[in-house]
């Protein structure tokens, strides 16, 4: 591969450097394009544009490969745990036993959320969607932690990481408790991070909460699978907002909002709602497949297709296995799950889906496990956000430490040329 790309505009040739990544991904560095040629590129949805170089996550959509810091997602899901993976993503290496113990203890130092946050939660109607509340509460954390992090100071950065990991988990579960009208719960520093999620959600003052290790284990795995996915919509948002030197909480809050959309993390909720709609309609999966294929119908098969994975989603494979284990352990017999299986089989055999490489993605199966665990549908995307948090932090940190410039794309203006102002009486 030549290390120079040549572009010809109006008969004049320009040379641009070619960058090759660790896994031989090729990119043309057009940093000087506008300066030298006066032209820009246009790439809606950034399907061909790299916004940065990154050492965090490698993803090969054609081969279905996902690696965090060089470790395969399959190995991490089987042999590691969520906090270890968070450490790996954020700090670059798997922690030693002493490092992970310290990390967990340091997170515990920040698990108490300011009581005044409860006043903010009280301002929301109980019917508010948990993702909207979570975005607002994350942003509100800025008010209680107004000092912005000096990213060049390792100790400050480390403290900010621990604080974010601690408080985000607690407020995420508070969105559910508010919804249910339950008293808000506190983190138990004698228990693990993922165990705490279950307790924070479901433990009631009226009696002890019985933890199911199979569920905790599956949830830990799900969080690992969601932990990072390079420059997806919410992560790019976090990097973009952070590039203006907005703080970590403000940047993460914008990531939560981006994740909420049904084409991104909101798809896990949309999948379940779709399956329930199919059930209500009589359970005819072929009818809904036909709707998804009809170009005049806006309906899409939720949980199918991916911008990057055009072969299979490696996360979906792991989750499918975990889903089978959890469902067997919990002895779940749910007609909605039968519809999911039928739909999956029919879509995988359908020419429209096959020819467009549309496979079940991570969200198709995650919703099914969450439902079996008793997690309400509206909380599904919140769980995605908890899993994605380490990735957002790692990417924000990398962007700031690398001193990336403020994100500010260009455009091609296609509106009206200059025209004379028309007086209001003559319009
Ligand atoms: N159902 C029916 N048709 C689809 C679907 C779908 N779920 N996804 C893509 N297509 C069709 C699309 O209409 C187009 O057809 P044609 O070539 O005839 O015009 C073709 O497949 C290519 O689709 P695209 O919209 O150009 O692909 P994209 O890369 O822009 O979109 C996507 C990717 C994930 C937004 C899309 O597949 C989709 O909307 N899926 C459903 C929502 C979903 O499950 N999202 C979760 C993604 S995984 C979690 C995450 O990381 O966020």
From TrEMBL:
Lineage top rank: taxon: Bacteria
Keyword Transferase attached: yes
Catalysed reactions listed for this entry: oxaloacetate + acetyl-CoA + H2O = citrate + CoA + H(+)
Gene Ontology terms: biological process: tricarboxylic acid cycle
CDD domains to which the protein is assigned, alphabetical: EcCS_like
Active-site residues (renumbered): 306, 363
InterPro entries assigned: Citrate_synth-like_lrg_a-sub, Citrate_synth-like_sm_a-sub, Citrate_synthase, Citrate_synthase_AS, Citrate_synthase_bac-typ, Citrate_synthase_sf, Citrate_synthase_typ-I
Family of the protein in this entry: Belongs to the citrate synthase family.
CC per GO annotation: cytoplasm
One Pfam family named in its UniProt record: Citrate_synt
Official protein name in the record: Citrate synthase
Keywords per UniProt: Acyltransferase, Transferase, Tricarboxylic acid cycle
Pathway(s) served: Carbohydrate metabolism; tricarboxylic acid cycle; isocitrate from oxaloacetate: step 1/2
Taxonomic lineage from the root: Bacteria, Pseudomonadati, Bacteroidota, Flavobacteriia, Flavobacteriales
GO molecular function (one): citrate synthase activity
Keyword check for Glycosyltransferase: no
């Amino acid at each position: 591969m030549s290390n120079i790309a040549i572009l010809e505009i109006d008969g004049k040739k320009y040379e641009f450097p070619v960058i090759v990544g660790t896994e031989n991904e090729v990119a043309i560095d057009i940093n000087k394009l506008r300066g030298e040629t006066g032209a820009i590129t246009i790439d809606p949805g950034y399907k061909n544009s790299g916004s940065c170089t990154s050492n965090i996550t490698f993803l090969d959509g054609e081969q279905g490969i996902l690696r965090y810091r060089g470790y395969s997602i399959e190995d991490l899901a089987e042999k590691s745990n969520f906090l270890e993976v968070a450490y790996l993503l954020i700090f670059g290496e798997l922690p030693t036993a002493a490092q992970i113990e310290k990390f967990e203890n340091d997170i515990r130092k920040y698990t108490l959320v300011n009581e005044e946050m409860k006043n903010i939660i009280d301002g929301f109607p109980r019917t508010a969607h948990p993702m909207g509340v979570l975005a607002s509460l994350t942003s509100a954390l800025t008010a209680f932690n107004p000092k912005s992090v000096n990213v060049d100071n390792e100790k400050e950065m480390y403290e900010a990481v621990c604080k974010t990991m601690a408080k985000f988990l607690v407020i995420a579960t508070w969105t559910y408790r508010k919804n249910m009208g339950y008293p808000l719960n506190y983190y138990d520093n004698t228990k693990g991070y993922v165990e705490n999620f279950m307790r924070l959600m479901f433990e009631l003052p009226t009696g002890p909460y019985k933890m199911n290790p199979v569920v905790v284990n599956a949830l830990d795995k799900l969080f690992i699978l969601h932990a990072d996915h390079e420059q997806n919509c919410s992560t790019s948002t976090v990097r973009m907002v952070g590039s203006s030197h907005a703080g970590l909480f403000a940047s993460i809050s914008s990531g939560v909002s981006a994740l909420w959309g049904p084409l991104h993390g909101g798809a896990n909720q949309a999948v379940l709602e779709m399956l329930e709609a199919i059930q209500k309609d009589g359970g005819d999966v072929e009818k809904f497949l036909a709707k998804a294929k009809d170009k005049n119908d806006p309906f899409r098969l939720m949980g199918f297709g991916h911008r990057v994975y055009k072969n299979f989603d490696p996360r979906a494979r792991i989750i499918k296995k975990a889903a089978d284990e959890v469902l067997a352990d919990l002895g779940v017999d749910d007609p909605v799950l039968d519809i999911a299986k039928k739909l999956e089989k029919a879509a995988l055999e359908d020419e429209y889906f096959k020819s467009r490489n549309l496979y079940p993605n991570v969200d198709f199966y995650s919703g099914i496990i969450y439902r079996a665990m008793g997690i309400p549908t509206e909380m599904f995307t919140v769980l995605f956000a908890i899993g994605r948090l380490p990735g957002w932090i790692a990417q924000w940190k990398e962007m700031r430490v690398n001193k990336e410039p403020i994100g500010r794309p260009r455009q091609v203006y296609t509106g009206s040329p200059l025209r004379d102002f028309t007086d209001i009486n003559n319009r």
